[in-house]
Specification:
Length: about 350
């Protein structure tokens, strides 16, 4: 059996980053990573298996914006197609699909949408094909095999660890549910459009940095510290480790061969502002700490009572062109929306569906 299904899946922000792929093909990382699943930043994807007599057309992919579908750009459609091939192989199915997908955050925001996008695609395909959970394989593995390793973590809510163990299937697991600790993520957008160097390329270059091996030596202690900080809801400890690991990622990127500079001047200005704010907030027992993924935007993790002050401060800064207020979330969910029912931009009159 199969039917049309829509699933939304969230982005996540890494506390200990995945940086460096031991096996790029199988998406096996050098190190375990830990993230917080978000709630507001998410991708919604509708998937429909096409009838057998239409399969010769192959997979068709649309992106949704302003209430209409447009054919996906070639590079993106190619990644979706490759992921669908992997999903077909792993689930032993041969269907071709119609796929429509949208993001809750603006495409030009410079936020990575691969994790949420490929987690949503994997979950929607499993739903559409009505694959029982026990034969679906691990959703985390299905999401990761898109090539976006961080998607492995987006299929779970709360605080998530992706072990990065090359033995076995390397599936992510939940460390604590969202209800365990209400942390917020206020995102300062300082960059629009795509980053210049993809994460994929960053993972490839990472081992060329002289600091790569040193980080791997430090990580077991850092990972233990992060697990403990989450368990004990110790924001000060978590914040310190969060910033250390962000610095390490960017030091490695900047010292890779050839080097990668993701920061922009506004990135540094935001870091300064967050440090100052943190000193003020500490007096009141609250706090705010920064991290960045492979890009210039700054994620400020903070306690619930600090969110308002953080958002206000960031929004007032020159160079910050937008602020998104996000929080720890519960993971993917089924949606009623049907993105394949939306008109195709410019072709609405033809009723192309
Ligand atoms: C810096 O290979 O998962 O965000 O496919 O672009 O989402 P995308 O990247 P991926 O690498 C993620 C790198 C990171 C750190 C992290 O999320 O762990």
């Amino acid at each position: 059996m199969s039917h049309r299904a829509t699933v939304s899946a969230p982005a996540n922000i890494a506390i200990v980053k995945y940086w460096g792929a031991k096996d790029a093909e199988r998406v096996v990382p050098y190190n375990p990573s830990i993230s917080m699943t978000l709630e507001v930043c998410r991708s919604t994807t509708t998937v429909e298996p096409v009838p057998a007599d239409e399969r010769a057309d192959g997979d068709r992919v649309w992106v949704v914006a302003d209430g209409a579908r447009t054919p996906a750009p070639a590079a993106f459609a190619e990644r979706v197609h490759a992921h669908l091939d992997v999903l077909r192989r792993r689930t032993g199915r041969s269907e071709r699909f119609r796929v429509a997908t949208s993001n809750s955050f603006p495409a030009a925001a410079g936020l990575a949408s691969s994790a949420s996008g490929f987690a949503a695609l994997a979950c929607a395909v499993v739903r559409a094909l009505e694959i029982p959970a026990e034969t679906a394989g691990d959703l985390s593995v299905l999401a990761r095999l898109s090539g976006s390793g961080s998607a492995a973590r987006s299929v779970l809510g709360g605080y998530v660890e992706w072990p990065g163990d090359p033995v076995g299937d390397c599936a992510a697991r939940q460390l604590a549910p969202a209800g365990h600790w209400d942390l917020r993520d206020v995102i300062a957008l300082v960059q629009s459009g795509d980053k210049e160097v993809s994460s994929l390329e960053g993972h490839r270059r990472a081992p060329t940095s002289p600091y790569f091996g040193r980080r791997l030596e430090l990580l077991p202690g850092r990972l233990d510290g992060v697990r403990r900080a989450i368990e004990e809801r110790d924001a000060q400890a978590l914040g310190r480790l969060l910033e250390q690991d962000a610095i390490d990622l960017h030091v490695i990127a900047m010292t890779s061969e050839p080097p990668i500079f993701y920061w922009r001047p506004a990135t540094l200005a935001v870091l300064e502002a967050v440090r100052a704010l943190n000193r003020e907030l500490r007096q009141a027992g609250a706090g705010a700490w920064w991290t960045m993924d492979a890009g210039a935007n700054v994620h400020v993790l903070c306690t619930a009572e600090a969110e308002e002050a953080v958002a206000e401060r960031l929004a007032s800064m020159p160079g910050v062109h937008g602020v998104i207020r996000d929080r720890v979330g519960t993971g993917p969910r089924d949606e009623d929306a049907d993105l394949l029912a939306l008109p195709v931009a410019g072709e609405a009159a033809r009723g192309d569906r």
